[in-house]
Amino acid sequence: MTTVFPTAARAAPDAGSVMDEQMNKLDMGQIQQFINRMDYELQSALPETDFKSLVRGLATGDISLQPADIFNRCVQYIFREVVANSALLGKLVVLAVICAVLQNLAGAFEKSSTGQLTHMVAYLVLITIAVGSFGLAIQLGREVVDKMVTLMQALLPLLLTLLVAVGGITSAAIFHPLIFITITASGTIIKNIILPLIFFAAILEIVSGLSKHFQVSRLAGLLKGVAMGLMGLLSTIFLGVMAIQGVAGAVGDSVTFRTAKFATDTFIPVVGGVFSDALEAVIRSSLLMKNAVGIAGVLLIAMIVIIPLVKIITIAFIYKLAGAVIQPVGEEKISDCLNGLGNSLITVFGAVAMVGLLFFFALAIVVGLGNITVMLH
Amino acid sequence: MDVLRELIQTLVVIVVLAVFMEMLLPRGDMRRYVKMVMGLLVIIAVMQTAAGVVNSELLREVPRVTVSDNGSPSLEDIMAAGKQLSELSRDEAARRYSEGVAGQVLSLAKLHADVNAVDARVKIGPENNSIDEITIVFNTGTAKQAETTGAGGTVAGVQPVVINVGDDVGDGAKGAAGVPTPEERKAAAGVAGAVAEFYNLPSGQVKIEFQ
């Protein structure tokens, strides 16, 4: 919360000119292109669509994010999505009621298999609708992961450049291959392995609901378990590696800087310390800009991830609501199936949110690393 | 993932087929046998996929993740850009440092009452930001005058403004403003020596100018 709402992170008036000069030297074109390509919905949620102005505003405190505003917007999105998906809810409930009626009427047919067959067809139609929207939710999740990886690939060179500017040369050298590899790898694993595994598990769960005598629910559970295990492993490795490498780099940089400072202070009499003090004051303005770029990145990641997450959780809610509404009608099979789909969507929500969280931590570590480097000066 | 997708597709087909056959077949032993056969089909499908995965080159499936593939800038580019920013910071720090030291020098020079120091310039060296050269600028003929102002309320020593219109403009005025008296020169040299001593510099690095 402190990182996202930087009320105390204000630039001193004289730091503004140095920051502007440095900002003009930085290449922010890639991020600006990314923002320009974003949906209108996402762009309108941003306080400023020009990245340079956003960074400047965050650094000077002109742009401050109010938690109440963000909360209100999220609630607004949730209600809008629930209303937008009400048609899906209607379809599911009506089909489920038809299924229940057909099941009750099955005994009235001359041959009970006719009723069963009709019931099965209605059930398959319902599943087709449900799987269709489930597939869309999975696709949405994959697109979000893709967007986040693209954003990180545009943002990290900028942050690493600023890290070098504040003296974190070793940290940047350690992080450069590592951070890009872990981010790309985690994005690829989530997108190409974990999300499909969740999808397959959901499909098998639905198929298991077709017949009581022919179950593949254990295989579905296995796939879901593998997906969850991979997610846990991935996040542990990602955070562990980043944190350990980061601290090592920061300590190395501080040693280099302190040696140089000692040399300047000692060998230039009387005014040796004045130069180090002046340099530190200027470096702090670079640090301020780096933090502002980091906060802007976190804001962008949040914007990219929140709206799709709201959509996914809303669809999960719709499934769960449909399952809850259908249960009293007596259609246990469909109710279980919809409930299972809702649970799977919550897992998709978890996977996408985890990517967002990992990238947030990555940004926080890079930003925090610069702060530690300067603090250890 | 393609292998797994194919397995899931096969399983779905088998299960749906099994369900339909269960419905369409007459009650009796036949149903049990069909169920058994379908179960075996499921096992075969799973085993076949597992065998395929074991025999395939797993490493080929792992996507190559290298930094250059992502189109992200190389470490050299990042370092160069960072160092450029760092240089910018260093220049700014050197400017502030130079201004700070110049202020100190001017204050030191102003302590000397025999000369009137009006400006100081400090040139910073590239190595370790050591001081390369200090130039102190003095005003000629105004040292004591500034000091004598005030007590009696009169401004002593202010030269009358003479306006000459003609060809011989300012010959005498030029000489008076730019050329210091021997006393002033001596006092200024003393100030320069003190400054050089204070900053531990060779005396040649502290220069004086008169205006």
From TrEMBL, chain A:
Pfam families: Spore_III_AE
Record's keyword annotation contains Ligase: no
Chain segments annotated as transmembrane: 88-109, 121-142, 154-183, 189-210, 222-246, 266-283, 295-319, 348-374
Keyword annotations from UniProtKB, A to Z: Membrane, Transmembrane, Transmembrane helix
Domain of life: Bacteria
NCBIfam families per record: spore_III_AE
Protein's name in the database: Stage III sporulation protein AE
UniProt organism field: Desulfoscipio geothermicus DSM 3669
TrEMBL record, chain B:
A Pfam family it matches: Spore_III_AF
Alphabetic keyword roster: Membrane, Transmembrane, Transmembrane helix
Spans through the membrane: 6-25, 37-54
Domain of life: Bacteria
Record flagged with keyword Membrane: yes
Name used for this protein in its record: Stage III sporulation protein AF
Organism (species): Desulfoscipio geothermicus DSM 3669
